[in-house]
């Protein structure tokens, strides 16, 4: 039987801060087009995984490979260039810039023509900008952000700002998108909207996603597979149904209430 290689392979990741072991032998794979979720109580190590994946933290042990290429050991900008984007819980938008300007900035690392080259090759730079604008407009349409195109990000209503944050990360045309608590602080209606947009993103774009989220209902509704962590140690990986039934998960996360 042919073995399909996963997009992302994380093996034996161990990360320590002084005496604190934030991650202890964490391993998982994410397939192409898969929506993979990481759950765990506060301090379980979810954010640390993201920070290892995007090169902000350097794990003491373990390997991370994307499409067969080693990720860990590279600088964050190089990893972004490999196609790893993330959204931030506290929003990574520039408040003074309009929504569309924020999306254009998200594409910055994809632009070949720098300022000087742009002056020498005006035609090419112009064409490139037109292409990048078109890519941003597609994201605006996908996330139904048209009414806010020219609104400064700082003035967007909270639910819309979270969606704009998703758009900013999507503007990088990632192959792997890290979603850091996309519905944190949202009411029920906003949460349902975000779930709908994430389903739409999955349907329309060719990318894998890792979701870190405290809203377990959203995780169970959207994820293909789930990794449950407890104090930096993986305790179970499986489908949402398997995870919900796993006695260790029930004990650690649902307080025995499920
Ligand atoms: N830069 C750091 N310096 C020291 N300790 C850290 C650092 N980053 C994380 N830790 C520690 O590592 C452990 C895991 O933290 P992490 O933020 O990854 O957990 P989390 O699951 O994302 O938590 P939350 O759900 O609260 O966001 C915690 O004990 C935390 O205090």
TrEMBL record:
PROSITE patterns: ABC_TRANSPORTER_2
Keyword Cell division part of the UniProt annotation: no
Domain ABC transporter: 8-256
Keyword Transport: yes
Annotated PANTHER family: ABC TRANSPORTER ATP-BINDING PROTEIN, CONSERVED COMPONENT OF ABC TRANSPORTER FOR NATURAL AMINO ACIDS-RELATED
Name of protein: ABC transporter ATP-binding protein
Pfam families: ABC_tran, BCA_ABC_TP_C
Gene Ontology terms for molecular function: ATP binding
Organism: Actinophytocola glycyrrhizae
Keywords, in A-Z order: ATP-binding, Nucleotide-binding, Transport
